[in-house]
Known about the structure:
Strand content: 15-25%
Shape: globular
Number of helices: 16
Strand order of the largest sheet: 3-12-13-14
Structural class: alpha/beta
Largest sheet: 4 strands, antiparallel
Number of strands: 14
Mean pLDDT: 96
Order of helices and strands: EEEEHHEHEHEHEHHHEHEHHEHHHHEHEE
Amino acid sequence: APIAEGAVLVDDAGRIAMVGPAAAMPIPPGSTVEQFPGCALIPGLVNTHTHLELTGLDGAVAAADFTDWIRQLRDQKAARSAADFLAAARRGLADCHAAGVTTVADTGDSGAVLVALAEAGGSGIAYQEVFGPHPDQAAASMEWLRQRIADSRRLTSDRVRLGVSPHAPYSVSGPLFSAAAEWARTEGLPVAVHIAESAAECALLATATGPFAVLWTGRDIPAAAPLGDSPVAWLARHRVLGPATLCIHAVHADAADIATLAGSGSAVAHCPLSNRAHRHGDAPLAAFLAAGIRVGVGTDSVVSIGRLDLLAAARAARALAGLDDAAALGLCTLDAARAIGLADDVGSLTAGKYADVVAVAVGTTADPVARVVAGGVEDVRATFLAGRRVFP
């Protein structure tokens, strides 16, 4: 519960030493004291799904049809250089800090976000995307992935971690899904996958129909075999699900899919604003939570929703599942940290965790939790990462 006139004591290692009323907080000699009157101190927000390498492309893709949108986005990415991607990732990370987000679970294929996190001393998981919809591409895609991860390990740390992201069922074959997931397990790497996002994806796997099937036929890509699976069942068939797997979107998940996700221990990155922006519908968030599935809120990219306002996403989740303010805030703090496997280090103001702390203007309200959830980027007054100010 909120602590009136509370304070956070940070040790020399950037971890929380104590949390409690300021009047009872010991102040070691030589300490620096920062005060934020009219503010609430909250855990650094955790965004469970970003594409920071796409920063700056908001408004650049306007197609209403999802398959056309993906094609246009691919063209936009092809026009960017490595330097462009890195500049975008740096700006995206700075935007996150300005919005009170201190940890990200980011998916991308350029590798730029990993570099940006490492050089900024950031916090999060950079999931390396891998593609290959034709089964014959699986071996080459896996060789590329293994080399990319090997080259990237030098940038990792206790706070900056690597993951693997076989992108989605419309861009990754069954054999590549199986191979990537198995290799990730042997390497101890977490997995993230876009799944059950659109009706077109469901039609592709169920009956080899719809716009994705048309694209596959035009590229001589064979239909998924066997047909008839839901996207979640497709992941289960290829042994992708598990406690280290983050399922992004999961809009089109039915009761059987929810049972499969819960039984596997997989987590969900819920992106309500992106789902609606693409007219995919609303994910069954209340059912996920009732089934005990670990869920965190994510924004997706600026291409989908414009400004990355995680609290706005939390409010949409609150309305969708009938949650109270504390539960909504949990979806972008401790619950989000649990969803991506980082709850031992982030997500709450708890002694021993990293001192990722955000000062949010709340005025003199009697309900600071409600005021925090009702707020936005403009209410963030300061963001600290391991006790180090990163905004402003």
